[in-house]
Amino acid sequence: MQNTTVALPTLTPRETDPDSLARDIVEHLTHRIGKNPSAAKPHDWLAATIAAIRDSVIDRWIASTTKTYEQGGKRVYYLSLEFLIGRLMRDTMSNLGIMENVRTALEKLGVDLDLVSELEPDAALGNGGLGRLAACFMESMATVDVPAYGYGIRYVNGMFRQEVHDGWQVELPETWLAHGNPWEFERREASYEIGFGGLVEPARADGSGDDARSWRPQERVIATPYDTPVVGWRGERVNTLRLWTAVPIDPILLDAFNAGDHIGALKESNKAESLARVLYPADSTPAGQELRLRQEYFFSSASLQDIVRRHLQYFGDIRTLPDKAAIQLNDTHPAVSVAELMRLLIDELDLSFAEAWDVTRRTFSYTNHTLLPEALETWPLPLFERLLPRHMQLIYAINARLLIEAKRDKGFDDRAIGAISLIDEGGERRVRMANLAFAGSHSVNGVAALHTELMKETVFADLHRMFPDRINNKTNGVTPRRWLMQCNPELTSLLRETIGDRFLDDTEALADLVPFADDAAFREKFRAVKQVKKGRLADVLKDRMGLRVDPSALFDVQIKRIHEYKRQLLNIVEAVALYDQIRSHPERDWQPRVKLFGGKAAPSYHNAKLIIKLINDVARTVNHDPAVQGLLKIAFVPNYNVSMAEIMMPAADLSEQISTAGMEASGTGNMKFALNGALTIGTLDGANIEIMEHVGRENIRIFGLTAQEVADTRNNGYNPRAVIEGSRELAQALNAISSGVFSPEDPTRYRDLIGGIYDHDWFMVAADFDSYHAAQRELDTLWANKAEWDAQAVRNTARVGWFSSDRTIRQYAREIWKVLP
Ligand SMILES: *Cc1c(COP(=O)(O)O)cnc(C)c1O
Span 34-45, mean pLDDT? Predict the structure, then answer.
C-alpha cells in the first residue's frame, strides 16, 4: 500500500511529564471532544484524560507488535467468553508509572484525578472468577512479555447491576458504553463473515475421496473487532484484547422497507445485534439457550478466522500453525473452536482430515474450571446439527476415530467408550463440549492441585486413562498490580519502606517481610494501614447504604457469587447462632464483629436469591436489636463488582472461603484477601489448600470435612437430621430461621430452604457447622490478642507472593504454550 520511497515524518513518543500531559488533555478536550475547558463536564475530562494516557500506550503497543512480528515469535491466543476487567484507567497509569504526573497535570487544570477516575464505568464483561482470571492473565501476559491476544465478545450489556429492594435482589441492565468507550479502536478491516444453519454439499463434483465439503449457511452475520490495549507492568509490553461485535450484512432489508414493513425490514439487523447484546448471567450452570450456542460459535469462528489469516499472512504455510500459535480455551465455552479449525483446515485450506487433526491438537489447550456435573456444557444434538451442520459432521468423524482407537488400542469396554464419547447417548442425545475440548487439545489443565487430581478421578477418569500425559495443573493466581499496588497503595508504600522495591517486580520477594511479623513497631504500622482501609470502606458503606459500622470491629467478609456450594448459608446460619449466644450470655467477652456479604445471584437461581433475602432479613433483625449493639452488625453490600472488590479486599480482617470441600475448583478471592493481610477461615478446598501450605497451618483457620470425607459421607447414608439433633446451637438457629423469627411478615419464607438441610444437606452445612462455629470462636480469642492476630496477618501477606498470576502465566508459557525459555 504505502510507497516506500516516500519519507514519512518521524513521530516522537509522547512526553509524560505533567506539563506535556496537561497540554495533551486540553488538546483532546478541544479538538477531539470539541469542548472548551471551561464548559467541560466531568465525563469530558475523563474522556480527554484517558485519550491522553492512551496516546502514550499506543507508541508502546505498536512497538510490541513490531517486535513480535520481527522476531517471528509464537503468539498466545486466549479465548474466553468473559473478561471481567473492571476499570482500566488506574491500571494503565500505574503500570506506565505516570499516575502522579497525571494527577499533577489535572491539578494544573483544576480537576481532581480521584473524582474523574471514579466516573469510569466497570467493564463487567464477566460473571465472576472465570472472567476475572482472564483479565488477570491478560495483564500478566503483557507483564512477563508473552505476545498475546485475548479474544471475546464486546457485550453491549455486560453483567447486570444489582440493587436490593426490600432485601431482594433486583437486576438492572448495565450500560457501560453509554458515554462511549475511549479505550477501544474499531477495526473494520479485520471483519469476518460468520454463518449459521443451511446445508452441507460435497466439495467436488464427483464427491469422492476428498475430506472437504462445502457448507452453505442459511444465515450470515459480520463479526467486527474492537481492540483494547492491555499494558503490562512498567509498560514493557502492550498486548491486545480483541472483542467482537456483530453487524448485519444487510442492515436494512430494502424490499421489505419499500413495501412498508418498517419493523420487518430491521429483523435481520436485530437478530445480528442480539449476538453481542447480553452476557449470560449464570455463573456455573449453562444457559442451554440457542442464543448462547450462537454466541459461542460466533466468537470462536471470528477468532479462528483471524488467527488463520494472520498466520498465513506472516508465515504462509498453515502446517506450521502449532509452532506459531498456542490457543488456550478458557473452559468449554469456546470448545466449538476445535471443530471450526478443522473446518477451516479441511474445507478452506485443503488439508486432509488426518493432517488437520494433527495441527488442531497441537494448537489447542483447554482449561477446565468446574467438576459440578450440572455445570458441564452439553448441547442437544438436533439443535447443534441445525445450527452447525458441518461441525456436527466433523464431530462425528473425530468421535469415530477416538472411539475406534479406544477400543482397538486401549481395549476400552462399552462403559468406558460411553464415558469418553463426544456424544452423550443416555436419554436425549447431546454433544459433550468438555470431551470435545479434551480430545482436541494437547494439554488439559485444572486450576488448583486438588481440582486437577479430582479431574483425573471423576469427570475425565476414562479420558485420562486413554491420554495419561494430557492433564496437568496450573494453580490460579491474581495480578499483584491491581490486587495490591493499586487497591492498596498505603500497604504498598509501607512494604517498600520496609523491604525495598524488589517485590514490585517479583511478588515472591514479599517473603522478605516474614521476620517483620515479630517486630512490634512494624505490626503497629501494618495495623494502621488496615485501619485506614477499613475507615475508607466504612465511609463507602455510609455514603452508599446509610450504614454505620465501627472500623475498630473485626471485619468478616464473604464476597463472591452467591451459590449453595460457596455456602453463604453456612455463614449466615452461624451468625444467627452467634446472635443467639450473645443475647443469652451478654456477660461473656464478645469481640465486636461486622459481617459483610456481597455477590450476585443468577436471576433464575431461586435458592441463591432466597439466601440474599435471608442475609438481609437477619441483618435487619440483628442491626436493630439493642442487645447486640456494638457487638454484631451484618450487612449485604449491593452490586459486588471489581471496583467494590478493590475497596473491600484491603479492608477485610477475615476472609470467608468456606465452600463444601471438593466443589470450588480454585478460588481467586482467597488470594486477594490474603495478599492484603486478611486471615482466612476456610475448608480444605481449591487453592485454600495451597494457601495453607504457603502461609503455614498456624496462620490460617481450617475447618470441616475434606473432599474425601464429603464423598464418603454422601456415600455412607448421611443423616443430617441426626447431626442437627446433636448440635444445640445449630438446631436453634435453623429452627429460628424456618419458624419465621427473621421473616414475621412471611413466616414460611425459609421453610423449604432450611428443609433442604434437614432432608439431604447436599452441601454439608449441618455436617460442617460445629467445626465452623468452633473455628469462629477461636478467631474471637485470637482477635483479642492483637499482637498475635497482626503477626499472622503479616505472615499471610509475606507468604502468598507465589499466587501472583505472573507465576501462573510463566507456567502456562513454559509447560503448555512453549513460548518462554
Ligand atoms: C476475584 C473476584 C471473584 C472471584 O471470587 P471467588 O471468591 O474466587 O469466587 C469474583 N468477582 C469479582 C468481582 C472478583 O474480583
Answer: 93
Position 794, amino acid: V
Residue 38: partners with Cβ closer than 8 Å, 6 or more residues away: none
Residue 736 · residue 580 · CB < 8 Å: yes
Is 560 a known active-site residue? yes
Give the CATH fold of the 72-87+122-475+810-817 domain. Answer: Rossmann fold (3.40.50)
pLDDT at 206 over 70: no
Residue 3 pLDDT class (50, 70, 90 cuts): low
Task: Give residue 210's pLDDT band: very low, low, confident or very high (50, 70, 90).
Answer: confident
Burial 123-157 (b: 16+ CB within 10 A, else e): bbbbbbbbbbbbbbbbbbbbbbbbbbbbbbbbbbb
C-alpha cell at 610: 432466597
d(CA 250, CA 593): 60
pLDDT tens per residue across span 430-465: 999 999 999 999 999 999 999 999 999 999 999 999
Rounded distance between C-alpha atoms, residue 784 and residue 701, angstroms: 16
Cell numbers representing residue 427 in the block: 436419554
What are the cell numbers at 534?
477499613
Question: What pLDDT score was predicted for residue 821?
Answer: 65
Our mutation pick for probing the ligand 1 site, out of 83, 561, 566, 675, counting the most ligand atoms within 8 A of Cβ, is 561
- pLDDT higher than 60, residue 611: yes
Report which of 640, 674, 504 is spatially closest to residue 568, judged by C-alpha positions.
640
Contact 200, 390 (CB under 8 A): yes
Cα-Cα end-to-end distance for the chain: 36
Whether 329 and 377 have beta carbons less than 8 Å apart is answered as no
- Give me the helices (H) in 290-372, please: 290-315, 321-324, 337-343, 353-363
Question: How many A from CA of 630 to the centre of ligand 1?
Answer: 30
pLDDT at 268: 73
Torsion angle of the four alpha carbons 552, 556, 561, 564, in this order, in degrees rounded to the nearest 10: -150
Residue nearest atom 7 of ligand 1, based on CA coordinates: 669
282 DSSP assignment: -
User: What is the 442 CA–ligand 1 centroid distance (Å)?
Assistant: 29
Number of residues written out for the chain: 821
- Tell me what the mean pLDDT of segment 499-514 comes to: 98
Ligand 1 centre distance from Cα of residue 81 (Å):
16
Task: Give 255 or 416, the one with higher predicted confidence.
Answer: 416
Q: Which residue, among 654, 651, 657, 709, has the nearest Cα to 687 in the 3D structure?
A: 657
At which residue does the C-alpha cell 479431574 appear?
455
Q: How far is CA 530 from CA 381, 467, 652, 781, in A?
A: 54, 49, 8, 19
φ, ψ at 155 (rounded to 5°): -65, 130
Which residue's CA is the nearest one to ligand 1's atom 3? 129
Cα(668)–Cα(129) distance, integer angstroms = 7
734: Cα within 13 Å, side-chain hemisphere:
26
Q: Name the nearest CA neighbour of 228 among 134, 300, 366, 292.
A: 134
Q: Is the pTM of this model over 0.85?
A: yes
CB 426 within 8 Å of CB 382: no
Does the annotation count 672 as an active-site position?
yes
Give yes or no for a contact between 727 and 761, defined as CB atoms under 8 angstroms apart: no
Question: How far apart are alpha carbons 84 and 666 in whole angstroms?
Answer: 17
Handedness of CA 401, 463, 296, 243 (dihedral sign): negative
CB atoms within 10 A of CB 641: 21
For residue 557, which amino acid is it? V
Q: Which residue bears the cell 485475548? A: 150
Name the strand (E) or helix (H) holding 448.
none
CATH number of 554-803: 3.40.50.2000
Under the banding of pLDDT at 50, 70 and 90, the label for residue 235 is very high
Residue given cell 471423576 in the structure block: 458
**Which residue is closest in CA terms to ligand 1's atom 5?**
669
Q: What are the extents of the domains in the chain? A: 72-87+122-475+810-817, 554-803
